[in-house]
Amino acid sequence: MTDTKEILSYVAIIIIGILLAQHLNVVVSGSMEPTFARGDVVVIQKANFFGLSELNTTNLEVGDVVIYDATWFPEPVIHRIIEKGTSPDGRLYYVIKGDNNPGPDQAPVYPEQIQAKVISFGENPGENLFIIPYIGQITLWIRGL
After folding, report:
1. How far apart are CA 127 and CA 78, in angstroms?
2. Low-confidence ranges of the chain (pLDDT < 50)
3. Which of 14, 43, 73, 115 is most buried, by CB atoms within 10 Å?
4. Separation of alpha carbons 106 and 52, rounded Å
5. What's the predicted TM-score (pTM) here?
6. Are the C-beta atoms of 40 and 136 separated by less than 8 Å?
């Protein structure tokens, strides 16, 4: 009986670890400095978490930091929303920019491109972001980034 409880506790730890890991993202560039640095880990809400929606991507605000599928870059990008707009055909879009970049990203971002939002604890969107400093450095080293 003790062996069964021990095995179940290990299984529970593994499942919890997998679920938590799905809500962490390693920052791979310096485009958001000084807000967070390369190698920091951010805690996120996902738009699609195994079929469940934790995030309404049409309800984001200026200031929110999001991860999105860029049309101009092969990997997901983590930047801040600096403007919301509506296209001539009535579609909502976001203008997004890295805090350390001189100008906005190359193309508007539509809600369906948003993968996740960095969790924040401030009164204003994007304020007091949930960041774990430098812990992702080992991931960058392993991946050769």
Report:
1. 15
2. none
3. 115
4. 30
5. 0.84
6. yes
The whole-number pLDDT of residue 105 equals: 96
HEC-encoded secondary structure of the chain: CHHHHHHHHHHHHHHHHHHHHCCEEECCCCCCCCCCCCCCEEEEEECCECCECCCCCCCCCCCCEEEECCCCCCCCEEEEEEEEEECCCCCEEEEEECCCCCCCCCCCECHHHEEEEECECCCCCCCCECEECCCCHHHHHHHCC
The reported pLDDT for the residue numbered 1 is: 54
- For the chain, the domains span 2-143
Q: State which fold the 2-143 domain adopts.
A: Umud Fragment, subunit A (2.10.109)
- According to the model, what pLDDT value does residue 145 have? 63
Q: What does the alpha-carbon distance between residue 26 and residue 3 come to, in Å, rounded to a whole number? A: 36
Q: Are 122 and 128 in contact (CB under 8 A)?
A: yes
